[in-house]
Design brief:
By secondary structure, the protein is an alpha+beta fold. The chain has one domain. It is 41% helix and 14% strand. The protein contains ten helices and nine strands. A three-stranded antiparallel sheet has the order 1-8-9, covered by helices on one side. Helix 8 runs antiparallel to helix 9 and helix 8 packs parallel to helix 10.
Length: 321
């Protein structure tokens, strides 16, 4: 048994609109916010008083591999779609898969008078039939505020800005949307003129790149294909700004990790340190942008930087905790 108080229930993203274009953005974010590599891993943990294996095993966010990189990636992704993340740290023996503590996403957190916290649960009638909830579901759960952690968006990328980006991307029509209103044999709207797909694609690509400009996202091959209308400098300039966005959200996930390990270490009697390998901070990325704008970074250097390659000359180790 653990002393977890919150209840899990299926809950969709709170601030995210699903579309072809936002789906690609979400995939790109997850792929790059913590690079997938083994030698060296993006983040490495050392501990005193307990094996680091048990600590990583304890980072058990739902739908997440038990790993340090996976924990950070999951927190960052949830912050992207919900704009805030609530975590509960719980303790206790966990049977054959012993772990000294556990970390859980908590949806429906509300702060009430006096600083106490509750979790507001949805009605069972609003949840899918497959959901197994057990007895005593109720509508509210009292939470232990001392074991709750809240992470919010960085100041450079507030909720209003991300909401604007996501809504504008979701409103850009895709080729699949277009197929619903065109005659499949003539590429013509009923009663209308023949449709020019090239004009549609150019207009769509421009709308996507304009919508994503506040976070720098280059929409994979879209901006690459448009380079005949832009240039390589602009492409890398945007990629650096997207890296700044990634690094800023990632820094908030690192803050969640710091708070979790401080709380768990105090309760369980261990000390943990975490080192990032070739993972840039927002401040470092901002300096890269200044250097690039001044003409002091070659395109080849920028390519290594945006991919956060561990062997690149600009990479270094950084103490996170």
């Amino acid at each position: 048994m653990t002393d977890r108080r919150s209840r899990w229930f299926p809950c969709g993203p709170k601030r995210w609109l699903q579309s072809d274009h936002t789906h690609i953005l979400y995939q790109d974010f997850n792929t790059r916010v913590v690079p997938y590599r083994q030698h060296p891993k993006a983040y490495v943990m050392q501990t005193e008083g307990i094996s680091p294996h048990y600590v990583e095993r304890s980072l058990t966010l739902r739908e997440n591999a038990r790993s340090l990189d996976g924990f950070l990636r999951r927190v960052a992704s949830k912050l992207l779609v919900d704009h805030e993340v609530w975590l509960e740290v719980s303790f206790g023996e966990r049977g054959r898969n012993y772990a000294p503590f556990a970390v859980s996403n908590v949806d429906g957190v509300r702060q009430v008078n006096g600083g106490s916290m509750i979790q507001v649960l949805p009605s069972l009638s609003d949840l899918p039939d497959w959901f197994q909830n057990g007895d005593g579901w109720g509508r509210e759960v009292d939470l232990d505020s001392d074991r709750m952690i809240c992470i919010v968006l960085p100041d450079d990328y507030p909720s209003q800005l991300l909401t604007q980006v996501v809504h504008e991307l979701a409103n850009v029509p895709s080729m699949a949307d277009l197929g619903k209103v065109l005659n499949p044999w003539s590429s013509q709207r009923p009663g209308g003129e023949l449709f020019d797909s090239n004009v549609f694609i150019r207009t769509r690509d421009l709308a996507i790149t304009q919508a994503a400009l506040p976070i720098g996202w280059t929409a994979r091959e879209i901006l690459m294909q448009a380079r005949r209308q832009t240039n390589e400098y602009y492409y890398y300039w945007r990629e650096l700004h997207f890296l700044h966005f990634l690094a800023s959200i990632r820094a908030r996930a690192e803050e969640a990790l710091r708070q979790v390990l401080a709380m768990a270490g105090k309760q369980c009697g261990f000390v943990a340190s975490v080192t990032a390998h070739g993972i840039h901070t927002p401040t470092e990325v901002q300096e890269f942008i200044h250097q690039f704008e001044a003409g002091n970074l070659a395109f080849s250097d920028v390519n290594d930087i945006i991919l956060e390659r561990a062997t690149a000359q600009h990479t270094k180790q950084r103490r996170v905790i």
